[in-house]
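Quick one, probably user error.
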């Protein structure tokens, strides 16, 4: 009963309407209104202001919303805990990664996980770190792989590897025979970079400002695959993890000297979140694969 009351309350709060909430829940509006009214009577407080054209939360409703969301999340996790199977003969896992990890980390990690636990349904998303943190806090992701610049104190981060960015070029590029490039020489390079919506671009721009580098950005792309393809087909270079180049036979990584552009990759989880057997297995494999890549 409590779960239903919370579900109905959250639906009305989300849709700002009893009619739309009832439609979303596939229940009649009178039944929904009655359940919310019973909840208000039980709490001794009015949760919604029904006087206007839109249904709004009262101050009491706003206070209750935070706890209702938390309770709903806990109930979902409790349901998952009941259905969790410790021998990993079934189950599911929701994972998100930031784009630069897709090329060299996600492939080996998914391959290792599937070979050991083929009965586990794995859902992998490629999204921004900001969005990832929101979904982790909302209980809609089990784990995320991103960087150690975490915004929320309610997220735990397990370090996985130190990622080094390099100047990535094709084998036809004039610098293809070079092992390293000086930071000031980098200002003379014509680049294609990920667009500013990516954490990687923010880190690159910060690095350039620190060292007084003025990069010639000739192109931008909002997909890692597009950046790689442009580098393959032109004389433009880019700044990406060195491991990205190592994963492609036709790309080369040129070290930035004297100060390298590095960042720490981490595995993120919500603090005190329930860990299924599949989650625990994935974390252990992530540590194994990352150790091999970091050697």
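Nope, works fine. Designed sequence:
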């Amino acid at each position: 009963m409590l779960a239903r009351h919370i579900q109905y309350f959250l639906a009305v709060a989300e849709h700002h309407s009893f009619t739309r909430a009832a439609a979303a829940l596939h229940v009649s509006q009178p039944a929904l209104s009655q359940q919310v009214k019973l909840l208000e009577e039980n709490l001794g407080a009015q949760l919604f202001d029904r006087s206007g054209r839109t249904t709004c939360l009262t101050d009491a409703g706003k206070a209750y919303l935070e706890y209702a969301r938390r309770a709903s999340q806990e109930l979902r996790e409790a349901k998952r805990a009941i259905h969790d199977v410790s021998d990993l003969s079934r189950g599911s896992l929701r994972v998100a990664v930031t784009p630069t990890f897709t090329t060299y980390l996600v492939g080996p990690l998914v391959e290792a996980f599937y070979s050991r636990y083929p009965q586990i349904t794995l859902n992998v998303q490629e999204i921004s770190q900001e969005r990832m943190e929101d979904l982790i806090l909302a209980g809609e992701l089990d784990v995320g792989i991103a960087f150690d610049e975490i915004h929320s104190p309610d997220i735990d981060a397990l370090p996985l590897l130190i990622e080094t960015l390099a100047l990535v070029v094709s084998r036809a590029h004039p610098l293809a025979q070079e092992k390293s490039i000086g930071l000031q020489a980098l200002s003379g390079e014509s680049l294609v970079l990920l667009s500013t919506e990516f954490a990687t671009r923010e880190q690159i721009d910060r690095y350039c400002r620190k060292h007084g580098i003025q990069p010639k950005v000739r192109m931008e792309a909002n997909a890692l695959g597009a950046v790689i393809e442009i580098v393959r087909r032109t004389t433009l270079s880019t700044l990406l993890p060195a491991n990205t180049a190592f994963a492609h036979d036709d790309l080369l990584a040129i070290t930035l000297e004297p100060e390298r552009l590095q960042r720490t990759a981490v595995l993120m989880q919500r603090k005190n979140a329930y860990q299924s057997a599949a989650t625990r297995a994935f974390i252990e494999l992530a540590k194994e694969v990352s150790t091999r890549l970091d050697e």
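The chain has a mean pLDDT of 90.
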